Automatic annotation (TrEMBL):
Source species taxonomy: Bacteria, Pseudomonadati, Pseudomonadota, Alphaproteobacteria, Hyphomicrobiales
Catalytic activity, EC: 2.6.1.9
Domain Aminotransferase class I/classII large: 8-179
Names of the cofactor(s): pyridoxal 5'-phosphate
Protein name: Histidinol-phosphate aminotransferase
Amino acid sequence: MIRQHPDQVIVIDEAYVDFGCESAIPLVKEYPNLVVVQTFSKSRGLAGLRVGFAVGQRPLIEALERVKDSFNSYPLDRLALAGTIASWEDEDWFRQYRDLIVASRERLTVALQGLGFDVLESSANFLFARHPEKSGADLAAGLRDKAILVRHFPMERIENYLRISIGTDAECDQLVAAFRQILT
């Protein structure tokens, strides 16, 4: 439940909402201090364009527009706008792309679990996984030696986890094969 705090704005980042979550956009009507933001980077495959949108009641959107107009480090060019519009209008492609990522995520989860990994449940385009017998740093280094990059965060509580982006099935197969070599 979102509490009403007239002096505070609540921003909900829905970067991964299309991969299996429910959007908070319907709540905007009820809460004047709520802004929901989404990106085209994840489920629409437009990471390089840095395109997204915000949904909120008019006063909050006007405030965002004032900030954008006074300081905008990511201006949208015609190519970015064309790509964004095409992506938004092609709902069939979007669904196929999203469903492919979800299927690959599930397939990779099963494969990693088969190798003994603990894989946290994901509703995103990445997995967070650890192996009980190898450190995250060692696994990341072993993958790097095989020209496979994953994210490793050397921070307390998550130092043994890897953040693994979902690629194509062929890329996921290469990752699993690399893990098999590293773990033996």
